[in-house]
Design a protein that fits this description.
The complex is a heterodimer of chains A (310) and B (176).
Chain A lengths: L2 E2 L4 H27 L6 H17 L10 H19 L7 E2 L6 H21 L4 H32 L4 H6 L6 H4 L1 H14 L24 H25 L10 H22 L5 H29 L1
Parallel strand pairs in A: 1-2
Helix pairs in contact in A: 1-2, 1-9, 1-10, 2-9, 3-4, 3-9, 4-5, 5-8, 5-11, 8-9, 9-10
Chain B lengths: L1 H21 L3 H21 L3 H25 L15 H21 L13 H10 L3 H22 L4 H5 L9
Classes of the chains: A mainly alpha (310), B mainly alpha (176).
Chain lengths: 310, 176
């Protein structure tokens, strides 16, 4: 079903993931421009994205008093790195860089690396607002992580495997999203959580002057912003093999189905990001722990019963 | 290849562990410890225990981040934000560390290790679980779920944002 490509496939991860992320950024800007009543034609949007990127590339790096430069830089770089490493187990049609036997746990681990990355990125500049942003990411992680893990466990239990390729193969007749809707929705919510975007953008909140973004400028800011979009894209792409049947589908080749489904999920996430206001963490935490954890555990029980009866 | 990877990971893990006591910042000490654990996880993966190795990566990143929060919070100099020494009670801790190291190292030589079978097991993680847990696997799994439920319920009950905060002591109206 899904085969591990040779090592050169590593080179294809960043262009594919990055390309999809750029499309998502453009869609996001177009939605924002339309909501503001400004022109949102493809050329305007592309020019805007291009000039913003160029401005960040040549921009000055900001320095603060007594920063922890090492942890700051490591934290910033770790965000896009984690996204690319997570994408290594996501199948693009029939190929994945490495269809690890423990692919789901690998993805989970790389996504959790963003906690450490953002905390370090918030700690580094020795600035209050950055630090608040970093701490918010940890709090957010504690809220979304347990329901997220149970959503992943649901898909893995139903397929009886932690291997992403096997999970895809088990959805030949019915997508997991159809009979495990709770797990699917919780997974999508946690994608917004670990890419600190949309209703879960408190770590980078406007109320703390951008939080983890507060003291990063120039290329540093580009790396952090790109990492955030790469995480969102990787999360959307992983939803496809976990819940939407991966590359399975009629007529079109597998890679085309992977692409179509990934952009559909990405479109939904960008739409939510643009239309749902920020949720305060202390409001989200009780919902996550008292509503979503029991729901996802009940979902896992159903998945386990289905797996046992098969 | 395997031997080279083992030594590289082992030396890196020990070097990072030493760094924990050399640096002068709670944050750096925590991340040095995390790096040490990640190299240790590499050794586990090298043994063919992929699942355990990756789970160590997952758990250690989470635990070290939370530990960083608590370490910074508990430090007496303004909330652990200032540079500070990572060593104290040196004689006592050296003695403890030396004793633990010596007894663990002695254990390596004294334990009668089982002879390895002719074939490498198909799934070493599965075999390790069976030999560790034996017939108590079901008990341990139930224990795990019970512990987890206890933790969640304790935190939910201890949370300040419970229904008593929203609705008042009589659960009838606005508290604030």
């Amino acid at each position: 079903m899904v085969e591990s490509a040779s090592l050169w496939a590593v080179l294809a991860v960043l262009p594919l993931l990055g390309g999809a992320a750029v499309v998502a950024v453009c869609a996001d800007r177009a939605l924002a421009a339309r909501a503001a009543g400004q022109p949102y034609g493809p050329r305007t949007i592309a020019a805007g994205v291009g000039s913003d990127t160029a401005r960040l590339l040549v921009g000055q790096r900001r320095t603060t008093l007594a920063p922890d430069r090492l942890l700051w830089r490591l934290g910033l770089i770790a965000v896009p790195t984690a996204a690319v490493l997570a994408a290594a187990v996501i199948p693009f049609g029939r190929w994945a860089v490495d269809d690890l036997g423990v692919g789901v746990v690998w993805f989970n681990g790389m996504e959790i690396a963003t906690w450490a990355a953002l905390w370090a990125a918030g700690w580094g500049p020795n600035s209050v607002l950055s630090l608040v942003g970093g701490y918010r990411m940890v709090a957010q992680g504690l809220a979304y992580e347990l329901p997220h893990m149970f959503a992943l466990i649901g898909a893995a239990t139903a397929a009886g495997s932690l291997q992403v390729g096997t999970i895809v193969a088990h959805q030949r007749h019915l997508w997991f999203a159809v009979w495990m809707p709770v797990g699917f929705v919780v997974y999508l919510l946690s994608v917004l959580g670990f890419s600190f975007t949309g209703p879960f953008d408190q770590p980078a909140g406007v109320d703390v002057a951008g939080g983890v973004f507060a003291e990063v400028a120039g290329p540093d800011r580009l790396i952090l912003a790109a990492g955030r979009w790469l995480l969102l894209t990787a999360g959307a792409a992983m939803a496809v093999p976990l819940f939407l049947g991966g590359g399975l589908g009629p007529v079109l080749p597998a890679w085309a189905w992977s692409t179509v489904k990934t952009f559909a999920v990405l479109g939904v996430l960008v739409g939510v990001r643009r239309s749902v206001p920020t949720v305060r963490l202390e409001r989200w935490m009780p919902v996550a722990w008292t509503v979503l954890i029991p729901l996802t555990i009940a979902q896992d029980l159903i998945a386990a019963l289905v797996a046992v009866s098969r | 290849m395997g031997a080279v990877a083992f030594w590289v990971l082992a030396v890196a893990a020990v070097a990072c562990a030493v760094t924990v006591f050399v640096v002068d910042s709670m944050a750096r000490a925590t991340f040095a410890l995390l790096a040490s654990f990640l190299f240790g996880a590499g050794e586990i993966i090298l043994l063919g225990l992929d699942y355990l190795g990756v789970v160590i990566v997952v758990m250690m990143i989470m635990e070290m981040v939370i530990m960083a929060v608590f370490m910074v919070m508990y430090m007496m100099n303004p909330a652990g934000l200032m540079p500070m020494s990572m060593v104290h009670n040196q004689r006592g801790s050296l003695l403890t560390a030396g004793t633990v190291f010596a007894s663990l190292a002695a254990g390596i030589f004294l334990v009668p290790w089982p002879a390895r079978g002719p074939h490498r097991p198909a799934d070493p993680t599965f075999d390790l679980g069976k030999s560790l847990m034996g017939p108590h696997m079901l008990t341990m799994m139930l224990l795990g779920v019970t512990l987890f439920a206890t933790m969640v319920v304790t935190v939910v009950l201890a949370s300040q944002q419970g229904r008593y905060d929203r609705l008042g002591d009589d659960l009838k109206g606005k508290a604030r």
